[in-house]
Design goal:
By secondary structure, the protein is an alpha+beta fold. It contains 8 helices and 8 strands. Strands 1-3-2-8-5-7-6-4 form an 8-stranded antiparallel β-barrel. The relative contact order is 0.17.
Length: 253
């Protein structure tokens, strides 16, 4: 028979070691999505599918009455789809935090001019609405193009689950490789918080569709771009893009 306390001593030592060890779930939680911008600002991305026969009427209404909506919060940009999608209208709104958005939505709902001149007449023009909430990735600031005019390319990447902690470094390297070619200008990189998760939206600006096409052709022959893209695609599930034309009322033109 073992002497009294012989079993208790190893068990007590093991318990002490477990107490000193860091808690696994807490460490993993801190690495779940990686770093984020050091503020509460977020962006709401709204996409409307417009009835094909009503696109012109809808865009005219946007240009005429959107100033009523921008009186309540900041519009980053609004565009119509030209290539890659049809009859779509995309607009992005900036909010300081979720309380700010709640207050704005309340004010908008009670704005009789906005409701009467735009919302009520526009309802029968829209087939479907989609909304997402996204943050700028930590290494990106929202930028304006060097001049007005040109076209915007909106590229959506569906990444593997894990967040920027998993794919952020490789994705940033691929973005920077394209920036360094000089053929295109980065406007912003957004990572979703609400909506389809693990989604990254990248907005590029180009002088024209032909300028973009020529730049893409050159980039595909650039060894630095090829290497960076090959490294990042291991985290990629799918991607799609849309060529967008800014509306007259868009701050980003």
């Amino acid at each position: 028979m073992l002497p009294p306390g012989a079993l208790r001593r190893p068990l007590a030592a093991a318990a002490a070691r477990l107490a000193r060890a860091p808690a696994g779930p807490q460490v993993l939680a801190s690495l779940a999505t990686g770093p984020r911008q050091n503020n509460t600002i977020f962006y709401e991305i709204r996409t409307y599918d417009i009835k094909p026969s009503k696109v012109k009427e809808f865009m005219e209404m946007v240009n005429k009455y959107f100033h009523l909506r921008t009186a309540h919060s900041e519009l980053v940009g609004c565009w119509s789809a030209e290539l890659g999608a049809m009859n779509k209208f995309v607009h992005v709104w900036k909010y300081d935090n979720f309380a700010h958005r709640t207050a704005v939505r309340h004010a908008v709902a009670n704005d009789k001019d906005w409701q009467g001149k735009f919302i009520s007449p526009a309802l029968h023009l829209v087939e479907k609405q989609h909304t997402e909430v996204a943050y700028l990735v930590p290494w990106c600031q929202l930028r304006k193009p060097p001049k007005e005019g040109g076209v915007y390319e909106w590229v959506t990447f569906q990444m593997k689950p894990g967040g920027p902690a998993l794919w952020g470094e490789a994705f940033q390297a691929a973005i920077n490789a394209h920036i360094n070619t000089g053929y295109t200008k980065l406007v912003g990189v957004f990572h979703t918080e609400y909506g389809l998760l693990n989604t990254v939206h990248v907005i590029w600006w180009n002088e024209s569709p032909d300028h973009r096409a020529a730049g893409r052709h050159s980039a595909h022959e650039d060894a630095r771009v090829v290497a960076a893209v090959r490294d990042s695609v291991r985290f990629l599930e799918s991607q799609q893009n849309v060529l967008l034309i800014p509306l007259q009322c868009s701050p980003l033109k």
